[in-house]
Amino acid sequence: MKLLLIEPPFKSFTGIFNFYFPLGLAYLAGSVKKEGFDCKILDMDVVEGKEGNFDFAHEYDRYASYIKALNDPQNRTWLLLKKYVKEQKPDFIGITAMTTKFGSVIQTAKFCREVLPEVPIIIGGPHATIMPDLTLSIPEADYVVRGEADEALPELLITLRDRKDISKIKGVSYKAGSKTVHNPPRAFVTDLDSIPYPDRSALMHPEAYSSEDMGVMLTSRGCPFLCSYCFHMWEQKVRFRSIENIMGEIKQVMSQYSTRQFSFKDDSFTVRNSHVRKLCEALKNDNTRIGWSCTTRADLINDDLLKTMKDAGCNIMSIGVESGSKRILAETDKGVNHSQIIAASKLLNSNRIFWSGYFMIGLPTETEEDITKTIDFVGKVKPYYAGLGVYNPFPGTKLFRQGVELGLLEPNPGLEHFLTTNPKDLFFKIPNKRMLTISDERFTEISKNAMEFFHKYNKNPYNLIRRGFARRKAYFYDPSLLFRDISKALGMLK
Fold it and tell me: Cα–Cα distance between 24 and 7 in angstroms, integer?
């Protein structure tokens, strides 16, 4: 029997380049194939080519085209979705749901049901896990898989295929007449090595992905920290893959896709120093000669570790800086202070590792002075690339609960809300009214100026050259990456 996993369209509706790679769906494809199911992955953001620009300074305004496309059944992307679903003729359809693109999830389920009215539709992912009742209120949604789906999804498919009782499947929610049933939660997989490698061969339109895209990986799952803007489904637990298992996947991807630039997408890659050192040792001893990037925290690196990582191929690192305001940084519950961030930035710069610092504005109690401090802090840490995001409240987080208590957020919007509201304004009672001390008109002006400052900082030719130099080995093995990066750079310079 056949499963079609769908990544709903999102960035393609805005004309902004999509960096996303459906690693979670690739993991599920590997798990269901192990149980004998055929599986394909339809990433709707790449069906018309992985294109777009990098104008994040006007991202908010660009989402108007997303809302328009959501509600246009004749939009080319929706017509393509129905075409591919009809051609694949799956026995089951799975859709992944993230909060920002939940409107697209609603419409994807609707159009799939129009084409194949008898095929069960299963929805999983972060948003389905946090808000299963809302997700099951989608008329076309039949089942929700909560949390990790590596074991639950294959079990659900087998049970449906064999027409057995689904009430015993942990981690699954479903409709029973007019009622919604939530089976008990499923425990996390304790042995990550038991999970099959992500099945990248299941991707439809593989030509849309670069060798670097295929190199997106996880070496661990989970996070031990309690940041106030994150949903803590991992219960502060971190599970690690064995070094042998990680190296096996690296070699497989190198062999099949000629990948030489990998991206380790762990929540905090260096949370266990010894694990990182063992991986670095294995990479050196195996003489793989790959480059790789990772994401971590300022308080989880030191000079010796950075030298070890760089020697093993680490050439890009991402660090969450969040805020230049001491008060706002404390409200994130990140457990990191400005002294640690500055010290980490000096280590990264002295070791000449290309690093991105990610900043955030728009938290509920933030003031204009706090935002000014964040902008000024860029000059103190001097990242090679500085990313700025406007805070989005996500259900299940401490800051979301705070927003509800302050009267800023509506915790239970209806489905129609997600089809008519800018993804940056989801859950706000009044669009753009996200802060207590700054009016929406003033914040719009401030955020626009801040985005333009960051854009100007990032298009500095010196920083662009430094990024290219960090990735020079990847260009040697895959020249198409060089042309793609040059295109990105030219787009940023406009």
Answer: 10
10-residue block means of pLDDT along the chain (494 residues)?
96 76 96 98 86 61 89 95 97 97 97 98 96 97 97 98 96 93 96 98 94 95 93 87 98 95 95 97 91 96 97 95 97 96 96 94 95 97 93 92 93 94 90 85 92 89 76 74 70 59
Read off the amino acid at residue 386: A
Read out DSSP for 86-124?
HHH--SEEEEE--STTHHHHHHHHHHHHHH-TTS-EEEE
Distance from C-alpha of 290 to C-alpha of 254, rounded to nearest angstrom? 9
Count CB atoms within 10 A of the CB of residue 93.
Answer: 26
Residues 329 and 473 both lie in one domain: yes
* Integer Cα distance of 34 and 3 in angstroms: 13
Question: Are residue 90 and residue 216 in the same domain, yes or no?
Answer: no
Token match 């900082």: residue? 457
What's 314's domain CATH number?
3.80.30.20
pTM summary value? 0.93
